[in-house]
Amino acid sequence: MNRVGIGYDVHQLKAGRRLILGGVEIPHDTGLEGHSDADVLMHAICDSVLGALGEGDIGTYFPPSEAQWKDAPSNIFLEKAAELIAERGGRLVNVDAMLIAEAPKIAPHIAQMKTNIAAALGVEPGAIGIKATTNEAMGFVGRGEGMAAHAVASVELPD
């Protein structure tokens, strides 16, 4: 049985924070605000995988109210999602994700993001699609106040 899940995440940009996207630290004058490392891309992907499994969202497993997740690297969230797939005897078929940000340029970092995400999920980088776009200067993303990401995951589970 093939299952599909969708994920969405958004974080505000804030001075004094590191910008982590897809597990890559990207030089920028602001970073994403959040309880963990606030990797908006990995968070959206995690929610898409959890959705394909019929599970709750990322906060179900990693509540921001728990101190142990403070500044945690988001690859551990993806590793948990992969563990849940394995527990059900399934496999991740693919992930497709879209990062929405006005700056910085994402394209130079996509190959490493795919490698990081694939490693956390236990798949080949070719199973991970990452694209980036701007919001054409509209809304909170367009004003440079935050970033957003959408993701879709396909998981194959036994009948």
Task: Give your account of this protein's structure.
By secondary structure, this protein is an alpha+beta fold. Helix content is 29%, strand content 29%. The chain contains five helices and seven strands; from the N terminus they run E-E-E-E-H-H-H-E-H-E-H-E. The protein has a five-stranded mixed sheet with strand order 4-1-7-5-6. A two-stranded antiparallel ribbon has the order 2-3. A hairpin with a 2-residue loop joins strand 2 and strand 3. Helix 1 (40-52) packs parallel to helix 3 (75-87) and helix 3 packs across helix 4 (110-121). The protein is globular and about 45 Å long. 40% of the residues are buried.
Question: What are the defining features of this structure?
Answer:
159 residues, alpha+beta, 5-stranded mixed β-sheet, 5 helices, 7 strands, 29% helix
What's the quick description here?
With 159 residues, this protein is an alpha+beta fold. 29% of the residues lie in helices and 29% in strands.
